[in-house]
Specification:
2 domains; Aspartate Aminotransferase, domain 2; 15 helices; binds pyridoxal-5'-phosphate; Aminotrans_V_dom; 4-stranded antiparallel beta sheet; PyrdxlP-dep_Trfase
Length: 396
Amino acid sequence: MSECIPFGRALKPYFMLDEKYVSVNNASSGVVCVPAFQRHLQLLEESEKVQDLQTRYRLPKLAEKTMDQLAELLDTSPNNLAFCFSATQAISSILLTFPWIANDRILTLNLAYPTCQFAVDFVQDRYDVQMDTIDIDFAYDRSELLSRVESYLAKNKPRLFIFDFVTSMPVIQLPCKELIQLCKKYNVISVIDAAHGIGLSPLSMSSLDPDFLYTNAHKWLNAPSGTTILYVSKKYHNSIEALPISYGYHIRKQKSPPPAPLNARFLYASSTDLPKFIAIDAAIAFRKSIGGEHKIQNYNYDIIIKGAKIIAEALGTSYFVLAPPIAMVNVEIPLRRMPSAEFFEYFWQSKNTFLRFVEYHGKFYTRIAGAPFLEESDFVYIAGVLKELCQNSPEN
Ligand SMILES: Cc1ncc(COP(=O)(O)O)c(C=O)c1O
């Protein structure tokens, strides 16, 4: 494909989107690009015809090649990476199989994604592990947060600190590098939920140097659904198991230390759709063909700032932006009560779009996310839809 295709409407046919659907909630499930979708389908078709031969011989080799490309993007060795089917599988694998010691403590932040928090809750309920939480807000003060975290780490010596690269809703970016450095200073294991990470922003494992980090290729890299990459620093390769416990555990027990075990352990934990992971290669190639990561991330940021302004001006509300290139914006919605699920279902389907809302400190916000196929007219449409929603919501 040519780099000459302008970003905006002209790029929409290259994404798996209904022509009439206006997709501004791209941070939820992501939008797969057509080349990655087709690559996935083609590999599935080829592999279904000669299942054993493909699954045992060809697909693992292709998966390895895709992993090499991901390793380059994440600036690490492929040996430190594993494919997971979701961020939730990644955090469950880390927390549920970690060798806890009685009275260990876990530190989290209040805006952790619910499923990740559930894994922490489970560990707390099942093992003799205590959880503490530090609260943060939209407009947190960076140095104040760092000093609060530092005092906690110094005083309580938790075993592990879990925090987001960028939270889900409301969207807040955390000082990831500094928090990791604090973890190192106090000998605390860092676990980063970077579900919003790869494709959204440069993400270098060599420079961040976390202990664990997972990132969803389906959210911002336009890869097929359910493609999460787990990074584990070498020191901890043998501290966790892939869930479900299966052949992966057997592989590790056979040889110690095994040659390149991490990804193999996750890949062979259960039957899986290998083609969807392999097809990430087509998403990477597609993104290169339209101008590359830097250009895409900059466009996503520019368009979402313009979009937020259009919506907030139409609604007479405020919006809260993050530093470039984090292309997600919290926009305040003038609602007094959350509409019912029934109202939303009918409303969104009638408008051919979808947005999520969150109530935060007594106000309602939505999260909009940039994408190469969006342009200002999409946000003019969304502004009109949101105005209508506020006027017609029976609860408002
Ligand atoms: C910050 C964050 N963490 C974790 C998740 C869960 O991702 P998954 O559906 O891959 O388990 C999400 C999903 O939106 C998220 O936004």
